[in-house]
Structure formats: structure tokens, C-alpha cells
Design a protein that fits this description.
Largest sheet: 5 strands, mixed, barrel
Order of helices and strands: HEHHEEHEE
Radius of gyration: 15 Å
Shape: globular
Structural class: alpha+beta
Oligomer: single chain
Helix content: 25-40%
Number of helices: 4
Strand content: 25-35%
Length: about 120
């Protein structure tokens, strides 16, 4: 539903002669948030890859741990689920995602539209 609203807003903006906003980009290590919150000291890097992949397959939330230490929740774009699947399939790797940043109740996420 949110994707539909965003798409309609962009179409309306284009019809008025405006330029749609560029997508946000976020880079960081793909971490499974369950382990990251429970034991942050050992829940990162190649040594945690297998566990993070298992957590992703269970459907546990995944995020990007950025260079500044913040974490951004990865969200699926229901109109383009392949990009999100690609992102969570890169557990323990550093990637860049392109999409729309959203914030609600102090939590920041990015609707994954592309993985670089």
C-alpha cells in the first residue's frame, strides 16, 4: 500500500513538472538483528555468516550496520521483492542498498529497491 502511495505521489509530481526525489542509498554490513541485539560483540563479520543466514531464512529481521554504528532495518518493497531477497542473502557482507528511507517511532528502515 505504501509503495502504491509513493508511486502515485511520484506520478503526480511528474505531471506537475516536478522532479521526483532521488532514492536514498545506505551502505553497511548485513546483520541479523536478533543476534546483533542479543550479543553485538560476536554477531558480525564472516565468523557469524552461517548464523545470520540461518536467521534470515527463519524470517528474522535483517539490517545494515553502517560505518557510524547506526543500524537501518531492511524492508521489502512488495512490488519488487527480489531486491530485498538479494540484500538479506548477503549476510555478513558489506553492501549498498538503494531505496526509500522511512522512520516510524524512532526506528529507521529502508525499503530496498536495488542492491549495489
Amino acid at each position: 500500500m505504501n509503495s502504491l502511495r509513493i508511486g502515485l505521489s511520484l506520478l503526480a509530481l511528474a505531471a506537475l513538472g516536478g522532479t521526483p526525489a532521488r532514492a536514498d542509498t545506505v551502505s553497511g554490513e548485513v546483520v541479523d538483528l536478533s543476534c546483533y541485539l542479543h550479543h553485538p560483540a560476536t554477531s558480525r563479520g564472516a565468523t557469524h555468516r552461517k548464523c545470520a543466514e540461518t536467521c534470515a531464512k527463519k524470517g528474522l529481521p535483517m539490517g545494515l550496520l553502517t560505518d557510524d554504528g547506526s543500524v537501518v532495518l531492511l524492508l521489502e518493497d512488495h512490488a519488487n521483492p527480489k531486491a530485498y531477497a538479494t540484500a538479506i542473502g548477503k549476510a555478513a557482507d558489506t553492501i549498498t542498498v538503494e531505496g526509500t528511507k522511512v522512520t516510524q517511532g524512532g526506528l529507521t528502515g529502508v525499503v530496498v529497491e536495488a542492491v549495489k
